[in-house]
Design goal:
heterodimer; A: mainly alpha; two-stranded antiparallel ribbon; 9 strands; B: 3-stranded antiparallel beta sheet; 5 helices; 9% strand; globular
């Protein structure tokens, strides 16, 4: 059952990605006539057939890995699937690109301030920091109560399969990983709020994105905080929640929090995307040095994508990557 | 007309450079009083992001408007419209030179509009509205 969750989610994601936005098709700006043509439908059919085959192969690989107790294979399955579908997207997008439509040369922008982050979003945005800081303080105060050895990871049967010794790295490692993840989420969120277009048509997506990011931030902080406090639990070997609940609860909250973004992405009138098709590499990577925006509306899927042509984004992305690598190195060495 | 109802429009395929289009629209609002002294404009970065253009283009437009005395621009802050009197040229020679320059520009523009097929009545109407400070 647990095996089917990541593959099922990936399959649904890849099934919908090319047609999620009303203005684009495989991340290419096309006319509504082309979108409804038999040619475009045939491309979509072939792409979805590849998706089905890749999902089946990936699930089979994961099943074999699980049966033969090969943990690496469990992670390789979804990775191969995602990689294969990225290549498939690139291949089918090239066929759609032949029917690309140039963006309108006209731009109209209101002088009104546009989207302003509401006060409650600032407060909800601070909660994850407080949760992790609170957990760190509690661990410091109760340091003497922490056992010399405690579990930090559980298998799908609910039994601990990885342990850690009582040390600063062992006790605070999970919190450090959580903080590092929060930094990535905060930077993405604030980069969209302050560096994406926020004229009138964009307000709804920025609101939805804020809602989603608040959901993700709080789920990450609560999950990591809960696991970090496990050494102080009366029975540290016992999982903080049943395995299925621990897998499904965060996923459920994240799925609920991205619903508004999904709704805005599906709006029929579109948002007047002015980004040129040629600046979208493989439909997912935006590079335009002549566009001052840090983040632009995603062509594939929902939310925002960084503008890698912008110097601030290049530096910010590099710093984020470095801090992630530093955390991984510190926690795993 | 409030600040919120105003829209900056750009045609990226126009022969007129983008920064010049921005200057022309703002100057029209300043002269007509649509954007009175004390009003604030979006920051350079904000306007560039919303228009999807390079920030240097907007910065150039704001710099020229600031040089003309319409704007106070400071780094990282919203630009503010200044009180500016349109003083007549000091000497007769300066006045002649100015008139010549604008005559040439106006004649060129009228020829371009006529070549586009718009009527003389429409051109006269627009010129009259402009001279009377209409929007």
């Amino acid at each position: 059952m647990l095996l089917a969750i990541p593959i099922g989610l990936l399959m649904l994601l890849f099934h919908l990605l090319p047609v999620l936005q009303k203005e684009t098709y495989f991340a290419v700006r096309v006319t509504p006539e082309y979108r409804d043509s038999s040619e475009s439908r045939a491309i979509l059919r072939r792409y979805r057939l590849v998706n089905l085959l890749m999902a089946f192969m990936s699930a089979a690989l994961m099943y074999v890995a699980w049966k033969s107790a090969w943990p690496l294979g469990m992670g390789v399955g979804p990775l191969l699937y995602a990689g294969g579908m990225a290549i498939a997207s690139w291949f089918f997008r090239r066929q759609v690109l032949l029917n690309s439509q140039p963006p309108s040369s006209l731009r109209a922008v209101s002088l009104a301030p546009g989207f302003v982050l509401p006060w409650w979003a600032w407060i909800l945005g601070l909660l994850p920091v407080l949760a992790l800081a609170g957990a760190a303080c509690l661990l410091a105060v109760q340091w003497a109560e922490i056992p010399d050895r405690f579990p930090v990871h559980w298998g799908m049967n609910g039994q601990p399969d990885r342990w850690s010794a009582k040390s600063v790295r062992g006790v605070y490692g999970i919190l450090i990983i959580g903080a590092s993840t929060l930094i990535v989420c905060y930077v993405s969120w604030l980069a969209a709020i302050f560096g994406a277009r926020r004229s009138r048509g964009e307000e709804r997506m920025l609101q939805a994105f804020t809602f989603s990011m608040l959901g993700v931030l709080n789920v990450v902080a609560l999950t990591m905080g809960l696991i970090a406090l496990q050494p102080l639990a009366p029975f540290p070997e016992k999982m903080p929640l049943p395995p299925l609940a621990l897998a499904l609860l965060p996923l459920g909250i994240v799925a609920l929090s991205i619903l508004p973004m999904w709704k805005v992405s599906r709006e029929s009138e579109g948002h007047g995307d002015t980004t040129p098709d040629e600046c979208w590499r493989a439909g997912a990577y935006y590079y335009n040095p002549d566009d001052s925006a840090w983040m632009v509306r995603n062509r594939m899927g929902m939310g925002y994508s960084p503008n890698f042509g912008n110097r601030v984004v290049q530096i910010g992305f590099g710093v984020l990557l470095l801090q992630l690598l530093a955390v991984i190195f510190y926690v795993t060495r | 007309v409030s600040n919120e109802d105003l829209q900056i429009t750009l045609d990226l395929e126009s022969l007129t450079p983008a920064y010049r289009q921005i200057i022309d629209q703002f100057r029209h609002w300043f002269v007509s009083g649509t954007l009175p002294a004390g009003s604030t404009l979006p920051s350079v970065r904000r306007l560039a992001i919303d228009l999807g253009i390079h920030h240097n283009t907007v910065a150039e437009a704001y710099r020229i408007l600031a040089e003309e005395g319409w704007l106070q621009v400071s780094h990282g802050r919203a630009a503010r419209v200044l009180e500016r009197s349109c003083a007549p040229p000091a000497s007769v020679a300066e006045r002649h030179e100015l008139k010549d320059r604008f005559s040439r520009r106006l004649r060129g523009l009228v020829a371009e509009i006529r070549a586009s097929g718009l009527s003389d009545e429409w051109i006269l109407g627009e010129l009259r509205a402009g001279a009377e400070g209409g929007n």
